[in-house]
Structure formats: structure tokens, C-alpha cells
Amino acid sequence: MSKSKHHPTQRTPTYYLLTLGCPKNLVDSEGMAMLLQRDGYRATANPDRADVLIVNTCGFLDAAREESIATLQELAAGKQRHQRLVAAGCLAQRDGDEVVRRVPGVDALLGTRRWMEIVPLAAQLRAGRRGERYALLGDPERDDDGTVLRPSAPSGSAYLKISDGCNAPCAFCSIPSFKGKLHSRPLPAILDEAARLVQGGAHELIIVAQDSTDYGRDRGEPDSLPQLLSALCRRTPDLRWLRLMYAYPGHVSDRLIEVMASEPQILHYLDMPLQHGHPDTLRRMRRPSSSTWVYKTVDKLRAAMPDLALRSTFIVGFPGESEAEFQGLLDFIQAVQFDKLGVFKFSAEPGTPAFDLPDQVAEEVKEERWHRVMAAQQSISLARNQAQVGRRLEVLVEGMGQVDGQDAAGMALPSGAPLTLARSYRDAPEVDGLVLLPGQALPAGQMVAATISGALAYDLVGELAPATPTAGLSFQPAAELTLI
Ligand code: SF4
């Protein structure tokens, strides 16, 4: 039973925490949840039963901002007398005034670098009078000593934030304006946190940052990501998968490729958001514009790791994007043959240089271009998935589903049959596809071996495979051998 620091006659306080936006927000939410639980709070999925309601908001795009506001408004409308509502995260940090103006029921704003103060804030709110409002927005340049522990990882996977903020000048992005410049966490703090996560059950750690490849530059040590990755592998020998997200073009060094290829724990997976494929669009985006560099780097990556899964993201409809430039993007995507792709329609963010650029592209043109990229990528993705058929892959179970009517025929199983949803090294959670194991019911967080038997446009279908017999161990029947 967990020990509560609250008075024994008081009932256990509860919190409801909703996370919107990107994986980086999820990391902060996990931290808040852990701190609250340590202080004796219990999580509830029902907002009506919570004492403290927390929304970790996203302020990246217009649509995300509106979703955050709508969520807060809904919770504020149903708020009971004793309940307190906290707006945390990017939107609270960046546009706190707007949040309070549009959602007067918000009792506190908690900035992106002060989420670790959730416990004293919640105590203050619960002890304070109704209608009192607090703002902990903090100084974005404040040092984060990285001493906050993360919770264990029941899903077998956890995010590891190595830095915050960004030095890049991308014309469409508002993140640096509210997150500030690059701020790398000290290496020992990252290593300690990784060790705790692995001890808590994480098989997979996912490195996140605004630009993970810039790690260390603010400490006078550019290109120190390879060193960090090697140190992580040494410090956590039981870790199975170390995944790298958000590499910036131009910052992927030979040293990084060498470390990725030589450390067995580092997945042969790289997410490198490139945003566009035409040099003129890239120049207006204030992004690195050399396609020669991209082709050369992709060649090096694939030569060092022939089974590399390469992911990228692109923006269509950036101001001034002509049909010829867009065609350049399509040609680029065909030439590189990415395994995974995310495509966004440009959204003019107030306060960014791209907001006022001339020649904004009409919404229907953006929409049409988005569909054309998606269609082009679908064939590429399917072909690359088909090349996986017959491979034996380690997969990490994400959860359970059911075979539905649409897929039942393809899986030769009746509709309603159990379906295990898993991921291989080729799939990052939330953004990539899945490996579907029809007919299996396995618990989340388990790692098993699968033989790939089929390919869909985004997902793979597989069957449980017998584990490879290890020297000194006797061979067991397949059914018992799926744990690896
Ligand atoms: S690198 Fe990413 S976070 Fe940094 S400014 Fe560009 S888009 Fe924004």
C-alpha cells in the first residue's frame, strides 16, 4: 500500500491528468504523475472524481491550441466547488493570458520548465480559496538539474528527454519563442534517469529533444550525442532498445552513424525531420537546403546499417510553394524512399517569420498536395513493408485489439478474434505503424519474437516465432518460447 503524506483522516487526494500534443509533453506528464503519486495522490480517469484537474496543453499549431482551450473549457464547465483546474505545458507557458481570458475557470498556469513544482502548486490550490489564481511560468533559461525521477514504465517503453529548447531559426516554428534556446541536461542526470527507467521495467528508451543531434552545443561540446548514446549503453546493459528521434539535417555526424551502427542496443531507426525537398522552399523555411548533403548522409546511414528504418516529416503548402517546388518534394521523396513519413499542412503561426510571408497557399491547394504526398508515400511504404515479409523481428507489445470485419479476410481469422498490437524497431510509438499478431493475446510491455507474414501500407502482420536457442539452453516448444 502506498504511504500517504496526508493526514490519516483525510481521504486520498486524486488527480486527473490529460496530455495533449507531442511525446515531449508526455515525458513531462509522466514526471508530474510520478511526483503526485509519491506525495500520496491517486490518479483517476474520471474528471468528476478528481480534486486536481491538469491539462498538459500544446501550443504548437492553431488546431492544437484550440483543442487545448476546448479541453480546458469543458473541464472548467463541469468543475465542482472543491476542484481546481491547472493549465500546464506549452500553451500555458506561451499564451497564459489568452488561456485565462478564454477559460476563466483555470486556477493555475504551470510553465514548461516548472512542471516539477506540481505538488506544492496542488497543495496551495487545495488549501487556498476558490477563485485565487496562481502562475508558475518561470524563467525559460533556468537550469534544470535533471534530478526529477520518472515513473516506472509498465508499457515497456519510456521517453528520455536530453535537452529542451532549440537554436534553429526555422521560419514556421514557434517553439524557440516559448521554450528558449537549446538547454542540454547534464549527462550524469540523464544516465541516472535512464538507469532508473530500465530498473522500473523499460525495455525501450526513446531519446527526445527539439533537436537531439545538437545535444551539448550549449555546454561547449557540440556533437556530443554519440558520446551520450555510448554512455547510455554502458550504463544500462539490460536495456534492449535505444531509439533516436528528432535528428536535424546537417547535425548527423559520421561519429553518430558509427556509434549507431556499432552499439547493439541502439536501434537501426532514425527520425530526421527534413520539412521539404526543394532547396528554394527550404531556404524560405530557413532550413538547411542542400539535398546533396541529405543524399550523401542517407547513403552513409544505409551503408552502415542496411536494415535502417528512416523516418521524416514534411510540410506542404509553405508560403510561395509553387507547383514546381511541390513536384520537387515529390521527386525527393521518391528518390530517398523513406520507410515512414509524416506530412503536415502548413499552418501560419502568429509570431513566426512565416506568418507574414507573401504568397500564402490556399487551403484547398494544401489539402490536395497533402493527399498527393500521402498517396506517393503509401506505395513506397507498402513496398518497404513487403520487403520485411519473412524476417524475424523482435517486437514490443503495445496492447490488445480485435480483428475487425475489414481486416478479417486478410488475416484469415474471424472478426472479433484477439489481436496483439506490437511494434518492431521500425516503429516509434504514436507516429509509426504496428506489427499485428492476430490470434494472440499478450500483455503490454512484453517482448516477443515474430516472423513477418504479411504487409499492409502502414502495418505488418506477423506470427509468434520460436526464440533463437541460446548456447547452453535447451530448446523448448514454440508456444513457451515467445518471451525473448
Ligand atoms: S528545429 Fe524543430 S524545434 Fe527547432 S526551430 Fe526548427 S522546427 Fe522548431
Any chance you could write out the topology, listing elements then pairs?
Blueprint: E1 14-19, H1 23-38, E2 42-43, E3 52-57, H2 62-77, E4 84-89, H3 90-102, E5 108-110, H4 118-127, E6 134-136, E7 157-161, E8 163-164, H5 175-179, E9 183-184, H6 187-199, E10 204-208, H7 225-235, E11 241-244, H8 254-262, E12 266-271, H9 279-284, H10 291-304, E13 309-316, H11 323-336, E14 340-345, H12 363-386, E15 392-402, H13 405-408, E16 418-423, E17 435-438, E18 447-455, E19 460-464
Helix pairs in contact: 6-7, 7-8, 11-12
Bound molecules: iron/sulfur cluster.
Would you mind describing this structure in some detail?
Helix content is 32%, strand content 20%. It is an alpha/beta fold. It has 3 domains: 14-136, Rossmann fold; 157-386, tm_1862 like domain (pyruvate-formate lyase- activating enzyme, Alpha-Beta Horseshoe), CATH 3.80.30.20; 392-480, Nucleic acid-binding proteins (OB fold (Dihydrolipoamide Acetyltransferase, E2P), Beta Barrel). The strands form 4 sheets. Strands 2-1-3-4-5-6 form a 6-stranded parallel sheet, with helices on both faces. A 6-stranded parallel sheet has the order 7-10-11-12-13-14, sandwiched between helices. Strands 15-16-17-19-18 form a 5-stranded mixed beta barrel. Helix 7 (225-235) packs parallel to helix 8 and helix 11 packs parallel to helix 12. The radius of gyration is 23 Å and the shape is globular. The protein binds iron/sulfur cluster. Iron/sulfur cluster (SF4) binds next to helix 5.
